[in-house]
Design a protein that fits this description.
single chain; 438 residues; Creatine Amidinohydrolase, Chain A, domain 1; Creatine Amidinohydrolase; 31% helix; globular
């Protein structure tokens, strides 16, 4: 196992034109192997949050939320959603930023008329075109991201074109990151650790959970990135994972108490390269069941590090990670591992919350088992994974882990700090902070 070191000089890694050429050459070779004349790549809105469908940025190194047309024998054309994107492009060029798509290869907007028109303009009216956006991308897009009306119109405008979904195949092609991308992932992981440390330094009895959330996000922003909204739940025994409830309904954030747990999922994102950090922070002494659960989760984490090696399949890795759970006597809360950059595979787990959680039997029934996604994926150096084992005794959930890169031999562990239960270091308050704005 190799552990990442902190950046020595604080320099921010960037993507060069050589990285652009590496990616575009991969895309052209992919099209040649599959007999494709072009790729049509749909991208999701830039504020999509964790695990976005942002394949467009892999081609453009630009703002997310575009549609890319990439002819095999030409340069990609980027379709923009609105004029603000052209203004940002112009200002970035004026400042001397590295721009991958020149102005003459931009179009606007990205509706069906412009998509069809661009394909015709490039002589692709009767072409074989690989499409990224039609296939499932769970959990957010179980049947793809392309709107029915847009796609129906494109098909009607180009009846002689042969469209083929290629997202899964392209995903596997781009998962092994290049050297410049790995440098960016290391930087993202460093920022993620700083976010978690800020949360640990803030959390204490009497402190509103929103201040812990704010401390983590501020640490990310201060280091030059815009993290996706983190998942955070608190309480003596929270068994949930998602955005804090006060972010989507009008209610006050909880005030932390002695004996509470802060359970969080922190997402760091630098230039479209993502890292993930599983966080369990205790306020005061941890419950004995939490200690036991953490021991099992840590054993699974160590098994994952041993398993993440080139040539193995993702399914093999999942089986190894879950082996410590077999006779432990507790239960597994969620998947213990999934891919990053992009998120196309996730470990299976028994989805038996209705049996384990009081009151869950009144909710719609869930499948008894979540199978492993892309179990046949063969590991290659440069692939990135969120290794996030979890385990529960009673209602005490230990969720820990971080980002791991598959190395040439040993895995590269980027976040050993969060591969353990953490202890809050903030200053306790006599009562909750004044949350009023008046």
């Amino acid at each position: 196992m190799v552990r990442a070191t902190d950046p020595a000089d604080g320099a921010v890694p960037t993507f060069s034109m050589s990285e652009r050429d590496r990616r575009w050459d991969l895309a052209r070779a992919f099209m040649a192997r599959r007999g494709l004349d072009a790729l049509l790549v749909f991208g999701e809105h830039e504020d999509a949050g964790p695990a976005p469908f942002a394949y467009d940025t892999w081609f453009t190194n630009g703002r997310a939320g575009t549609t890319v047309v990439f002819p095999r024998d030409g340069e990609p054309v980027s379709l923009l959603p609105m004029e603000m994107f052209t203004k940002d492009h112009l200002e970035s060029a004026r400042r001397g930023d590295t721009i991958w798509i020149p102005p003459e290869n931009l179009r606007m907007p990205r509706d069906s008329r412009v998509v069809a028109g661009t394909l015709k303009e490039l002589g692709l009216g009767k072409a074989a075109i690989g499409v990224v956006g039609l296939e499932p991308y769970p959990p957010w897009h179980p049947e793809g991201i392309v709107p029915y009306r847009l796609w129906n119109t494109v098909l009607a405008e180009l009846p002689a074109a042969d469209f083929t979904p290629v997202a899964m195949a392209l995903s596997r092609l781009i998962m092994p990151l290049g050297a410049e991308e790995i440098a960016v992932v290391r930087h993202s992981a460093h920022i993620g650790d700083a976010m978690v440390r800020a949360m640990v330094e803030t959390a204490a009895a009497g402190v509103p959970e929103s201040e812990v959330y704010a401390a983590g996000m501020a640490a990310g922003h201060a280091r030059g990135t815009t993290p996706a909204a983190m998942h955070l739940w608190t309480g003596p025994d929270p068994l949930a994972s998602g955005l804090p409830p006060w972010s989507y309904r009008p209610q006050a954030p909880r005030v932390l108490r002695d004996g509470d747990i802060v359970s969080a999922e922190v997402f760091s994102n630098v230039a479209g390269r993502h890292t993930q950090h599983q966080v369990t922070i205790t306020i005061g002494e941890p419950h004995e069941d939490l200690r036991r659960a953490a021991d099992v989760a840590r054993a699974a984490y160590d098994a994952g590090l041993d398993a993440l090696r080139p040539g193995r399949t993702f399914g093999d890795v999942v089986d190894d990670i879950r082996r410590p759970y077999a006779d432990a006597g507790g239960w597994e809360f969620g998947p213990a591992i999934h891919t990053l950059n992009p998120m196309i595979a996730a470990g299976g787990f028994p989805n038996d919350a209705s049996r384990r959680m009081a009151g869950a039997d009144t909710y719609p029934p869930e499948d008894g088992h979540r199978p492993t996604m892309a179990a046949d994926l063969e590991l290659e150096p440069g692939m990135t994974f969120a290794l996030e084992p979890n385990y529960v005794y009673g209602r005490q959930l230990a969720y820990l882990g971080g980002t791991v890169i598959v190395g040439d031999d040993d895995p590269i562990e980027l976040n050993p700090y969060t591969a353990q239960v953490l202890r809050a270091e903030g200053v306790p308050a006599r009562s909750g902070r004044d949350m009023s704005t008046g």
